[in-house]
Design goal:
2 copies of one chain form a homodimer. By secondary structure, chain A is of the alpha/beta class. Chain A has one domain (11-189, 222-262): 3-Layer(aba) Sandwich (Stationary-phase Survival Protein Sure Homolog, Chain: A). Chain A has 7 helices and 13 strands. Chain A has a 9-stranded mixed beta sheet with strand order 3-4-2-1-5-6-7-13-8, with helices on both faces. A two-stranded antiparallel ribbon of chain A has the order 9-12. In chain A, helix 1 packs across helix 4 (147-163) and helix 2 runs parallel beside helix 3. The termini of chain A are far apart. Chains A and B meet through helix 2, helix 3, helix 4, strand 8 and strand 9 of A and helix 2, helix 3, helix 4, strand 8 and strand 9 of B.
């Protein structure tokens, strides 16, 4: 396979975690296509909740499904992160100028970003020094309405075209359903998922099994500078986040406690 | 199933990503058992590279495999993150006092922490306000020698017993092979994996497939305060990291650029 090289226009890599057939992926391609040549590499099936998983114990498959002027689409058996790695090392002859991931069917705000394959796809771009943005819409239905989101994605993309992105920083953009009142740059809300496993029994053997269910609990309800507050109030939320999550405050604290001197040579 | 309640001693939850049979898991149990009652819930097969994946499209299985004084072991069909969720909501009647994950067979330093199921298992504990630590040894062989590591894990655990851990902060501890010269508290090195996919062809169909290979590249070679430097010099590396990776510097920068005023209502 001949690798895809950059032509006159910016080269834009697109992935997602809902799979190559997802409506949100088509919306994202529609949004960014005016800005450059688009190459999509997306999972051939749903990869929601796959986080930054990579496939190391199985081989990966890669198939071209569409090729037209300014747009080439591949599907892969891998995760979003695998898709980006395949793109960079097997499909593209030049480093892409931008990476966009999504538009995810469903929220990836607050702590949910850690579970998201869509956000991980964007992170993988940031690992490779590519300006990368994850987009999600707060509607997880397969037939979600992306009509307001397309225009908004385009405007956020224009911001990045104009101002660039800092090295090691990725953007996580969540958009409310329907009309979007505006954009807020915010921090990730403190929150958690409270699981409620539904226990059932196999009809033949009586063996128990569990379906994970759960509901999100916002632990940051008083604050107005979070992504959750922003989305609750009808705005799109942009959370810039770093690839290096080291807590330097704790580094200093542990050093000042003298812990390094207290743990001697192992024996 | 009756839930396991806390007795007089601290309740310690243990998981990993190499699976319930892994030598590193046994080493970790040996290390922390003196400090409390231990409940292990680990994947029934290897989950390396599964990151923070959760199982939402399949049911989960959970089986008790051992019960003795001060130690109960379960295996689950899920990922490390699933295991922790099952522990908190189905197995334990009280919140555990501590969570330890590992000892991973192989490094989870620098950017590799993002791909690691072992680190994600610990993160899931931090999400639930449990002091949580991931441990890894720089030897990915199934028969790795954990004899130096056990004593070191014990000392790091004693630090946490004495000083506690800040809310929202998780510890990622990597240990070199063999003798350990001491402990250093450090930041995550900048680096990346450069993939080299090995392309092969199915014997019957001729269809191509790809095996992911790769090598780590340290992009932070001049610095002496990173986990990579520390490990290269024979020390164990403790990187404290935050669950909220928001880059507040970029939040301020984008706000000062006036981006919020420039993105109006969608239409």
């Amino acid at each position: 396979m001949e690798k895809i090289k950059k032509d006159h226009r910016p080269l834009i890599l697109v992935t997602n975690d809902d799979g190559v057939q997802a409506k949100g992926l088509k919306a994202l391609v529609e949004a960014v296509r005016p800005f450059g040549d688009v190459v999509v590499i997306a999972p051939d099936s749903g990869m929601s909740g796959m986080s930054h998983a990579i496939t190391v114990t199985r081989p990966l498959y890669l198939t071209k499904v569409l090729e037209e002027e300014g747009l080439t689409i591949f599907k892969s058996s891998g995760t979003p992160s695998d898709c980006v790695k395949l793109a960079l090392h097997e499909v593209l002859g030049d480093k892409p100028d931008y990476l966009v991931s999504g538009i995810n069917h469903g929220t990836n705000s607050s702590i949910s970003m850690h579970y998201s394959g869509t956000v991980a796809g964007a992170k993988e771009g940031t690992f490779n020094a590519i300006p990368s943005i994850a987009f999600s819409l707060l509607d997880h239905s397969a037939d979600a309405d992306f009509s307001h989101a397309v225009n908004y994605v385009r405007q956020v993309f224009e911001l990045v075209l104009e101002h660039g992105m800092a090295e090691g920083v990725c953007y996580n953009v969540n958009m409310p359903k329907g009309e979007i009142k505006g954009l807020r740059v915010c921090r990730q809300a403190k929150g958690n998922w409270i699981e409620g496993f539904e226990k059932r029994y196999e009809p033949g053997t009586g063996k128990p099994y569990y379906w994970m269910t759960g509901s999100y609990v916002n632990l940051d309800t008083d604050a107005e500078d979070t992504d959750e507050w922003t989305l609750d109030h009808g705005y799109a939320a942009l959370v810039p986040f770093t690839i290096d999550p080291t807590c330097m405050e704790t580094v200093s604290r542990l050093k000042s406690l003298g812990v390094e001197d207290r743990l001697p040579v192992s024996n």
